[in-house]
Amino acid sequence: MKKYLIPILCLVCLIGFVFSCKKTADPFQISDPGYDYFPLEIGKFIEYEVDSTVFSLFFDSVFIQTKTLAREEIVDTLRDNTGQLWYKVERYERPDEASPWTVRKVFTMSRTEGQAFRMEDNLKLMPLVFPVRENKSWNGNIFIDTRQEIPVRGEPVTLFHQWSSHRMKQVGEPDTLGGFQFNETLTVSAQNSASNTLEMRRWTEKYAKGVGLYYRELWMLDTQCENCCDGDFNQCDNLPWTEKAEKGFILKQTILNYN
């Protein structure tokens, strides 16, 4: 009996060892969901340089270029009627470094186990989802009425019409911008799935671990090809958007300082 007992005990131990090894080597275990790409803490701020080009025929001007300095600072917290924690953010602006900061708007940001939210100008956006992964996609505009028209210098633009999914790229890659070196970053991109000769929607945001949003570029443009081409759509199709846009805007927001 003893000569059979020893092999059986060895087999039991071997099976236990194999299963314990598989448990510790679980390939689906997420050690870092990536919350540090969207840090939320009272007192945290980021300053940006914002370059914008607004296209409009409403004021007899094809485009207007402006440069603004902006500062976004988390100043308080609050909870909504479901108990979800939101962070209150004040956005300051000034035309140059010699001018004082002026509060331009207040908005909120929040983060749950699986999503990050930004509520601004009555628009609820989902700029990130967790855990962060290469090529991960989601509907960042799921809370927005895509038919909603947003006024841009007095002219209505359907900014969120027929957008494709947001997608993460270059997750964990280093990047350098404006003299800053970021060890781990990710890029989120999206565009209008129906972008064509008459409509351009493109959205790019870059996030750095421990910093947050450090670069944003938006192209929200419409045309009827009247001002540039007298309605000649073939000619219009070959022109860059900076030459044929009749309404909308291009915005580039670049980090200048942060804590």
Molecular structure report:
The chain is mostly beta strands and 259 residues long. The chain has helices at 2-24, 226-229, 233-237, 241-244; strands spanning 45-56, 61-79, 85-94, 102-111, 115-120, 123-129, 137-138, 150-152, 155-157, 166-177, 180-191, 199-208, 212-222, 247-258. It contains 4 helices and 14 strands. 14% of the residues lie in helices and 50% in strands. A hairpin with a 2-residue loop joins strand 5 and strand 6. It has a 12-stranded antiparallel beta sheet with strand order 6-5-4-3-2-1-14-13-12-11-10-7, with no helix packed on it. A two-stranded antiparallel ribbon has the order 8-9. It has one domain (31-258). Mean pLDDT is 87; it is low at 4-28.
Low-confidence stretches: 4-28
Class by helix and strand content? mainly beta
* Overall structural domain count: 1
Fraction in beta strands = over 45%
Describe the sheet with the most strands.
Answer: 12 strands, antiparallel
The quaternary state of the protein chains shown equals: single chain
Q: What is the first-to-last residue Cα distance?
A: 72 Å
What is the averaged pLDDT score?
87
The ordered H/E elements are: HEEEEEEEEEEEEEHHHE
Shape: globular
* Range of helix content: 10-25%
